[in-house]
Fold these 3 entries.
Entry 1:
Amino acid sequence: MSQQSTSGAAPYGTRRVAVVVSGWPRLSESFALNELLAMQDAGMLAGIFATKRGDAAAQHPAVARLEPFVHHLTDGAADDQAAEMVGLLGDARVDGVHGYFAHRPAAVARGAAGLLGVPFGFSVHAKDPRKVEPDELADRSRAAACIVACNGDVAEQLRFVGAHPILVPHGVDLTSFAPTCADHRLGAEPGTPLQLLAVGRLVEKKGFVHLLEAGAQLSIDWRLRFVGDGPLEDELRVTADRLGIADRVEFLGSRTHAELPELYRRAHVVVVPSVVDSQGDRDGLPNVVLEAMASGLPIVASDVAAIPSAIEHDETGLLVAPHDVDGLVAAIERLAADPRFAAQLADRARRRVEDRFGLPSCTRRFLTILETAYA
């Protein structure tokens, strides 16, 4: 998603916070980029410390704005990385250290904060709490000055170990992701194939194989675009070929968020068929859900993890059970058969993100929590 400045929105900047991230930069983690940019704009950012290298390929255009703040720590134990981080900070003022994920970044943040004599906290997003042993997660949570959870599903994982996370959703840029012209909406051009869009890493938890299986059963003319890359691309291509639908499916690879709005504008329906994978991993609230809602598009999504916190069935989208191929078919064909209903869902979805998930209001809440926790 694109970035919006929060400068001038609130009197932040009395606290200086060093942030520990995982891989940097990461094309799939625009939520981190948005919040770090907000910290920079507010004068709160003391530095960004990455525990490992991120994506070497396409990057968000705004990554360059943060480059002066970024340090890549040497591979090693969390305590070693914490000590290196403190050395890199030198005499810089630091009021708190915030880990952007519950696993390695939170461990490094805790170690660095101990050496500096300041409080630490951390954010949680999707699978990162499950990468930490429950006893260690509970101990880390008790020691933290704040824990920020971006969705209710991951917040519940923290509550299970006795933690008390603060729920702050990631916002979406309502300017870049905006409703498409009515002339391009579903049903506006009779005879045009239904344009389906799926956005996300090509991994098991995204459930894209079930979308291909559903496509093979659709009784309408359709096309499908996948945006993203990942280890299952070859398998998905083989599946599309086996099902006899390869000529209807296009794999576009990774795209930056500067490129995504145009892809949403070309789509009629966005499908998010997420599942809990064989290792127990699952999405939180995927970026694509909020971006599609902001773009004024009807959505078919799985009733899993935190997706129902944004998509209310028959109100702001259609929900189906995970792995339910027949349910996907029925939902997609229902929208295709009733463009007026699809437009109503899309309009209500846009209003929902305006009310709850606008980027400026979400980042202001995030900054307020940090300002208070690291006082």
Entry 2:
Amino acid sequence: MNRTIVCPMVLLALCLPATADQERKESVNLHETYRPQFHYTAAKGWINDPIGLVFYKGQYHLFNDHNPVSCRFPGGKTSGEQSHWSHAVSPDLIHWKHMPIAVFPDDNGACWSGSGIVDRSNTGGFQAGNDPALVLIYTSAGKTFGQSLVYSTDRGRTWKKYEHNPVLGQLVPFNRDPKVIWHEVTGKWVMALYLRGHDYALFTSPDLKQWQKLCDVKHPSATECPDFFELPVLDAQGKVTDGGKDNTRWIFWGGNGTYLIGRFDGKAFTPESGPHKTEWGRNCYAAQTWSDIPPQDGRRLIIGWMHGGKFPGMPFNQQMTIPRTVTLRSTEEGLRLFLYPVREIENVHAKKHTWSNLALKGGDNPLVNLNGKLWDIDAVIEPGKAQQVGFDIRGHKVIYSAKDQKLTALGSSAPLKMHRGKIELRIVVDVTSIEVFANGGQVVMSFSLPIDPTHTSLSTLATGGKANVDSLTVWQCKSVWPQ
């Protein structure tokens, strides 16, 4: 949970109360000038870190650190201003339904970041009936910082706090952000926890209530918000390697999106490479992956806090990234993570425009007749003799320099090598965001900003010579919010 980003705005009335056993109906306008139309936002108030991410019985659950009283960072001393956990559910990672607040501050302090799991073997003893309990593990941030539990026996509609919280007391001041996973080989829970500086640690438990330390983990480039997960090693095209399912590595993820690659034997994490960088834009932090994705799905899914954006005059503040699929692939530089929009983004695709084998030079603009605020753009470009190629998207440029092999967007730059003389750009555009995924997601650039609502044009760019667009697909997108 980042304690430094503060964005004061207009005070609000307390978030709408809701009965414990019913999903809250929207009673606010979700089509305001600066309301993202397919990126998640709270109905009202502030949100930051995505937390408690868990899939259960056909629904993805998304929680956030949340200030229900105002649009500013929840650092206040009163209980109303302290961090709560907001809650939303979705059948497809795109269409979200706002739910009642799940976790409230108590005598142990505010509710800071954490994670969620399905306790399928009832290790914690919380189950009632035939269905396993959902359990959220969070930081109780008070005079001291400990890790606490809250659980649900009705698919996440109501939540009850464990009576003996915290289950892991303070180790060092401000230790926080527990990410808990089930480790199949040892048959125990494993918790990654941020301590201080660049120090993290792993703990283990048989029942979510009693925790023992396994090892320390030094993450030289990161603080806060760990994640810890295993991925199969894929080839450069995203296909399973010769080692098959047994060729895996463990990822230790930090709050700023840098990560270590290594091995985990149930007792210690041994880094093999890193830290490596995923995010090259300005506005992605504290990303976390979903737990309990069904084996038949097989994906590792992640979402981040698209922090720092401004939403003038809006009753909400901050937004999430588009959910992304994470894969680990072999590259010329070694193993690296690739992040790419989930396939479910197709659920907001509307009209489709396509071009192929298109010669492109300065002054050309095949997109001249396209206007709108919501876009999903996919292009494979051969720069050829052009010095620069790219797009102008609603007044903001995404440009590739062939000479420098560098991608620049909205003032940020990232190294990007051509593959067989080509680059691939995927650009997702909402009311207040632009996300760029290059070469299948090897480079990601996330930006949150209030785009001028009167600027709705798109154009291609090419300077210094002729380029060739192998393929270009532009989808106009639609809102996920009820009309």
Entry 3:
Amino acid sequence: MNNRFAIIGWTTICLLAGSLPILRGSVLAASSVPPIYLYSGYLMTASGNPLSGPYRMRFSYWNNPDALAGDLLTSGEINPAAAGYLGWQEADTVIPGNKGAFTVYLGSQNPLPSFGMFSSGDLSTLHLQVEVRPENAPDTSYELMDPDVQNQALDRSPVPAAPFATNALLLDRRGIGTGSGSVPLLLSGGMLPVSAIPGKTNADSFTIDADASSTQDVSLKFGETLGKTLAYDVLGSRFVFNADLHIQGNLTVTGLVNGVNLSAIASGTGSVLAVLHPEFAAAYQGDGENNVGQLSVRHDGGPRTNYYAWTSSRSSLQDYDVIVRLTLPQRFERWSSTPIVMNHRTQSASAGDGKLDLLLFDTAGNAVGVNGGSGLASASWAAAGITFSGSPTWTPGQSFLLKVKFSSKNGIEAALGDIEFRYVERVH
């Protein structure tokens, strides 16, 4: 390449030197999206004589510093498929003035690309290629402005952060930050960092925990010192306040409050306690091979309790079933928070010696999951509170089934006393 030109001057974008002029230019970025860069310098011959022109200057963006043979087509045009070409180029005609001075407004012929369209890798290796030819010469006459003729791998000038960092840090003269008038910076996924959450929004919805961390509680905190929170308890599927709640106005509740149906109370309902005392009407069943033992009804004078007793002298657990069928009243509304309480005693605290297990079937005949009703064992009389799980069916006026399995060995007595049923019944 013949060194016919040189560009000299000062620049914040690049310093170009080589077969064409040494270029020093300056860049001004708009406070919003930068549509134009002001690029200026001096165009002169390699021997230092200023040129008067006109000349054609071609600018282009690349993500590498080394110009290769395949970067240009045989026509002299930039190869759009060239490796490293970032898709933007512009050609401007310049007529140098006094001492060869010229000014080019990059983006005036072809809009500059938004830096947001480039990957972080492209931005970190962004280079500007500058070429010059006489105005009426063909494109094959373009000469590359090499910033360092001694370095064969450096043919383009790196674009420093200034052109787009100015835009990134100042938007309409507003800087990035969390103070009044500042511009918040979005994180990956378009989310605001916690420190930049605005005081209010005019949108119809505002999502907290947008990354859907469904296994963790989500909390809204009021004041660092105050420390009051409104949290969603994921495991309990409920909202939790850590302070008192005052409602100024009407409150409508469609579910339960501490196990009480407020709408049912408003319509005239009350709690009911029904107790079965042994000997209650029941069916008896040995449902397998381990059914050797004796079932009887006895009385404990201390707590004045009648109870069913099952004992077996065998060395392995033997079991027997007591089955009760009950009908829900027509005014049945719902079960209380602890629907069933079973009074029991096994003489041994080890369920391996004797125990009681509850099996329950709803009014549709389906097995009901019970909590607190399995492996009951206590050396003295104890009351086991039993709750339900799942979505059992309880239809007023229909029957449900309760089965208590007694297990005993080595003469240990498994005993069942009163069974309490707690529910809410409509008064009207």
